[in-house]
């Protein structure tokens, strides 16, 4: 059965950051540091989902989705990242899972969507190999509590984006700007994925996925320089995270002149069999060469397409291209694919542009040469859009951040009708 759903992430919606024993995360620290987020916005309250989850589950039931992808806040479960377990944190996800199941909605938790416990960051965060082991211990604690009711799990969300924005460029928490010095973060996240997959299986999890942010890479021309640059970017953005989990080997990183801190046995751990690959798609990336400084590529704007409120080009065919290229590259090594995020930022309740965006991308997905088993709209609610604060609205449901009032947008009603048609003409 195809899984239609919506997606969110803990720090972007929950609020209640100091309640029921939750410890601080890197995003609390970062958003409270002056000038890191637009207008100094923080996730202190966000959508207050921690208290309003029942209303949000009812909104999903009204939408008619079969699944909900949410993330679990590591510092709610282990306030200092390791050691003492905070039962009240587990209780929250227990209530959420039960509320979803009561409405016939399949819970699909992601264990890490960027809110690392600050205590672990203080010891090096994902630059430190030990964080991988802590992640697996945390996965075991969560699965012990929920695996009797949760069968599908996602380990990491977009390890590429977390590495680049969080550790290479410093635009996201933890705000480190190490450029290529951030590359160990890729390996430690992937090792954490492999170890957590083992822990989830041991606790009885049925389906385990990783979610990667993937992009079709378009060379700016067919000059040799642009083609080489595009290949180098494809290696960094897509293959660095897909190859090791699917084939047990890293791609050739010689264009970057760095080596990953791989120890013997790591690649076997990372390449645990998976039941699905989660793919988040927003847009293609256009690249030219030879690049400046330490990087073998340069970004080029994509013109000739409509743009979202964020300025991102709307290219539905990029999703068809991306899914087809995964099939072509990995063949039998590619498990079923789930589009675990796709969506756009626009203002207003009569969001016809969002309807066009979703309609176009869903059509492109269905035309793709790939075994696609699910599609999750990012996002259910307008929420804390990281460095952009509350300025970018990705929700099917509008949130008034003064009153917390939820109002379904035109796209919510469109998606509800779309899902109704799906269930009658199968
Ligand atoms: C996802 O990341 C996240 O998982 C989610 O939490 C987030 O809310 C959602 O997307 C919307 O942003 O052309 O320079 O502007 C998406 C990762 C990284 C994809 C930035 C688009 C645009 C680069 N995004 N990228 S630029």
From TrEMBL:
SUPFAM superfamilies named among the record's database cross-references: (Trans)glycosidases
Keyword list, A-Z: Carbohydrate metabolism, Cellulose degradation, Glycosidase, Hydrolase, Polysaccharide degradation
Reaction it catalyzes: Hydrolysis of terminal, non-reducing beta-D-glucosyl residues with release of beta-D-glucose
Keyword Mitochondrion: no
EC identifiers of the protein: 3.2.1.21
Gene3D superfamilies per the UniProt record, alphabetical: Glycosidases
Xref: InterPro entries: GH, GH_1_N_CS, Glyco_hydro_1, Glyco_hydro_1_beta-glucosidase
Family according to the record: Belongs to the glycosyl hydrolase 1 family.
Protein's name in the database: Beta-glucosidase
Organism: Microbispora amethystogenes
């Amino acid at each position: 059965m195809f899984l239609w759903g919506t997606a969110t992430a803990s720090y972007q919606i929950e609020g209640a950051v100091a309640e029921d024993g939750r410890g601080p995360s890197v995003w609390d620290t970062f958003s409270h540091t002056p000038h890191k987020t637009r207008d100094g916005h923080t996730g202190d309250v966000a959508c207050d989902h921690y208290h309003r989850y029942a209303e949000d589950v009812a909104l999903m039931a009204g939408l008619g989705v079969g699944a909900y992808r949410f993330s679990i806040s590591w510092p709610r479960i282990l306030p200092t990242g390791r050691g003492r377990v905070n039962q009240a944190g587990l209780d929250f996800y227990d209530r959420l899972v039960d509320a979803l199941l009561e409405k016939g909605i399949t819970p699909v938790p992601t264990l890490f969507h960027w809110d690392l416990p600050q205590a672990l960051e203080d010891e090096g965060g994902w630059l430190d190999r030990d964080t991988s082991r802590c992640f697996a211990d945390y996965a075991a604690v969560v699965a012990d509590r929920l695996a009797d009711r949760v069968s599908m799990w996602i380990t990491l969300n977009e390890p590429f984006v977390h590495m680049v924005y969080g550790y290479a460029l410093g635009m996201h928490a933890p705000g480190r700007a190490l450029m290529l010095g951030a590359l160990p973060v890729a390996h430690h996240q992937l090792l954490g994925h492999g170890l957590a997959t083992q822990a989830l299986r041991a606790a009885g999890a049925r389906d385990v996925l990783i979610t990667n942010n993937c992009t079709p890479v378009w060379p700016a021309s067919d000059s040799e320089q642009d083609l080489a640059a595009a290949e180098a970017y494809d290696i960094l953005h897509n293959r660095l995270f897909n190859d090791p989990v699917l084939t047990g080997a890293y791609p050739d990183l010689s264009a970057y002149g760095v080596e990953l801190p791989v120890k013997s046995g790591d690649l076997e751990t990372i390449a645990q069999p998976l039941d699905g690959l989660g793919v988040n798609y927003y847009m293609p990336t256009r690249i030219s060469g030879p690049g400046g400084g330490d990087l073998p590529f340069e970004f080029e704007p994509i013109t000739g397409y409509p743009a979202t409120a964020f300025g991102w080009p709307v290219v539905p065919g990029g999703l068809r291209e991306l899914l087809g290229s995964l099939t072509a590259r990995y063949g039998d090594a590619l498990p079923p694919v789930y589009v675990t995020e796709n969506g756009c930022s626009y203002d207003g309740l009569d969001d016809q542009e969002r309807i066009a965006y979703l309609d176009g991308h869903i059509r492109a997905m269905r035309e793709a040469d790939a075994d696609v088993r699910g599609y999750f709209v990012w996002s259910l609610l307008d929420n804390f859009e990281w460095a952009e604060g509350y300025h970018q609205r990705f929700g099917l449901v509008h949130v008034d951040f003064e009153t917390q009032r939820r109002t379904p947008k035109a796209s919510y009603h469109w998606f509800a009708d779309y899902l109704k048609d799906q269930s009658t003409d199968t």
